[in-house]
Design brief:
Length: 159
């Protein structure tokens, strides 16, 4: 194992940092779509998140292989720079710190978006209850035969 393997792992960590940054941006966009009640934009954000999750899966597989090749499988991220060759330790330390910072930012953005989504879902449940139904009884818009929605939830559409 040479310095190129160690450098390859640092490059992978930089890719991971980029993915986390992008996921953070998407979490922010998700929060914005919740504020604007824009379901179409939310759908687009979710599609982009799915693409990134596939990228993360590929990065994780590469990460596992490289860690095994370097003999660093049980080493925590914070201990990584100490296991690197002296000439790469500073770069490893910076890369690890950037990744940790990126992860913290992503988590805070994701938590904010999650909280907003949960709040909106709670408000929807309140509206359903106020309309005379129980949230658990309301499906995805398809009612079983013979089941009528509450009278104040009916709408008359004419084309």
């Amino acid at each position: 194992m040479g310095a190129s393997d160690y450098q390859a792992y640092l490059d992978l960590l930089k890719e991971l940092t980029g993915c986390l940054d992008r996921l953070g941006e998407l979490a922010e966009a998700k929060a914005q779509t919740v504020r604007q009640d824009d379901l179409l934009a939310m759908d687009e954000v979710l599609k982009q998140e799915q693409v990134l999750s596939l990228s993360l899966r590929g990065l994780d597989q590469r990460r596992t292989k490289l860690l095994t090749k370097l003999g660093l499988s049980g080493v925590p991220l914070t201990g990584l720079p100490g296991k690197y060759p002296a000439e790469l330790q500073d770069q490893a330390k910076r890369t690890v710190e950037e990744l940790r910072t990126s992860y913290k930012m992503y988590r805070s953005r994701a938590d904010l978006a999650r909280g907003m989504l949960e709040l909106n879902l709670h408000q929807i449940d309140k509206l359903i209850i106020a309309a005379g139904a129980h949230p658990d009884d309301v499906g995805a818009g398809y009612e079983p035969p013979g089941m009528e929605p509450p009278k104040n939830m009916k709408t008359d559409f004419r084309a």
